[in-house]
Amino acid sequence: MAASSAAERVVIENCAIATVDAGDTEYASGHVVLAGNRIESVGAGAAPKDLENVVRRIDATGHLVTPGLVNTHHHFYQWITRGLATDHNLFNWLVALYPTWARIDEPMAYAAAQGSLAMMARGGVTTAMDHHYVFPRGSGDLSGAIIRAAGEMGVRFTLARGSMDRGESDGGLPPDFAVESLDGALAATEATVREHHDSSFDAMTQVAVAPCSPFSVSTELMRQGAELARRLDVRLHTHGSETVEEEKFCHELFGMGPTDYFESTGWLGEDVWMAHCVHMNDSDIAAFARTRTGVAHCPSSNARLAAGIARVPDMLAAGVPVGLGVDGTASNESGELHTELRNALLINRLGAHREAALNARKALRLGTYGGAQVLGRAAETGSLEAGKLADLVLWRMDTLAHSSIADPVTALVFGAAAPVTASFVNGRQIVEDGRLLTADEDAIARSTREQARRLAGIAAQA
Fold it and tell me: Is-annotated flag, keyword Hydrolase (predicted)?
């Protein structure tokens, strides 16, 4: 999978480098050479002087270069319902917001996706993910709108095509008019995979099968969704073990806890990742480790909704793949993943392991290689290694915010959110000096504000 010798090269040098490879190799002053959409070499000191087809040399003095951040859980549409139900737990928050979410349409979904993607991309995310599960009748091509926004932004993207078929009349939380039928959800999901999923090494768009959660999805949709994903050879995603209320719900409805329920429906495996996984006992963690089921850890959202502290150190010790997630911006209004590096470290230190829970390098691994593992793309991205895709970030470390911290990785994780001087995805620069090169941030701000007001007006009249 090496880059062609005729590929145009970009040389980045004079920078600190955290490769996040298997050995956590770091260079106090090193170089990275990009050839086309691949990383050609990473090493200490200056890059070779005799390289051919060098179209650009970047003097990255004062910077730390890391793999691009990988977001493993998000709900883009929530960008236009930020700041609502701010003092609610998960179930009450869902009950408060589902009637509004159930009225989204294609223009709203597109604008919200632009807002969510822009905020992440300008903060160092190179691989994004969206779990979209609200498909109101007559709302248009929501999946297509989201995928179009990601393509225009220039980020690598996984759409987790969600679904719900358990409405209020069946004991679920969402309004009946916001859910799909079993057959309709399966058919629409399969159509989305067939139209948009790319299984190639350097794919920019992939699709996963993603029924929403136990309290909004029937057992049959879970079971047949897993069968569909494996027939189509794509990944599976859902919410799991987020709150004590969910655990109680599963015991009352299914006679077992969430992990046992997921296993009974085919939802444990190395092709599965679940969001949150806050309330996991030792046997749950052992089951995830045995099956290599992944976890999207969303520390800010878990705190915002008072869900609890996930046992991330125990999961990592057991061998569970763990990445970081922003989660929807109605429960993490900042919408940024780079702040989750710090929040994951701090919040986990409030748990049983205290100061030994996570350190700076483990937090960075969660946000990069761990996320790539969870999305099934660790062979392609998540670390800086020759042959991998050219997805990387240059963080500026010589400003007032970080210059007195000697260790750049500590500065990145413990310090204030670091400025992004440049972000590359697939060898293409999409951010320069903290601003997007692929989109007009001011125009996106205006359109998201307009769509948020439009949605609020429609919901108020309903």
Answer: yes
Sheet holding 272-276, edge to edge: 69-70, 125-132, 156-163, 205-211, 236-240, 272-276, 294-297, 322-324
Q: What is the pLDDT of residues 8-44, one digit of tens each?
A: 999 999 999 999 999 999 999 999 999 999 999 999 9
Distances (CA, A) of 1 to 11, 34, 66, 201: 20, 14, 21, 8
What's the pTM value of the predicted model, to 2 decimals? 0.97
What tokens were used for 149? 């926004």
Average pLDDT for the chain: 96
With beta carbons less than 8 A apart as the criterion, state whether 412 and 64 touch: yes
Residue with tokens 């000697």: 406
Tell me, what's the pLDDT at 1?
44
Q: DSSP readout, 244-256?
A: HHHHHHHHHHHSS
Rounded Cα distance between 58 and 10, Å, is 8
CA 176 to the chain's CA centroid: 28
| pLDDT grade for 71, boundaries at 50, 70 and 90 | very high
Helix ranges (H only) for 236-384 are 244-254, 258-264, 282-291, 299-304, 312-318, 338-348, 360-365, 371-374
Name every residue whose Cβ is closer than 8 Å to that of residue 87 and which is 6 or more positions away in sequence. Answer: none
CA atoms within 13 A on the CB side of 105: 10
Residue type, 149: A
- Which among 201, 274, 257, 197 has a CA at the least distance from the CA of 228? 197
Contact between residue 293 and residue 273 where contact means Cβ atoms under 8 Å apart = yes
Tokens 């290694």 belong to 385
Pairwise CA distance, residues 64 & 74, whole Å: 26
**Can you read off the two tokens belonging to residue 66?**
């890391």
Report how far apart, in Å, the C-alpha atoms of 35 and of each of 25, 129, 304, 391 are.
21, 26, 42, 12
So what's the pLDDT on residue 5? 59
- Provide the pLDDT confidence category of residue 221 given band limits of 50, 70 and 90: very high
CA pair distance 188, 184, nearest whole angstrom: 6
- CA gap 14, 28 in Å, rounded: 9
Q: Report whether 323 contacts 374 (CB < 8 A).
A: yes
| % of the chain surpassing 90 pLDDT | 91
Helix (H, G, I), strand (E, B) or coil at 273: strand
The whole-angstrom separation of Cα 392 and Cα 19 is: 10
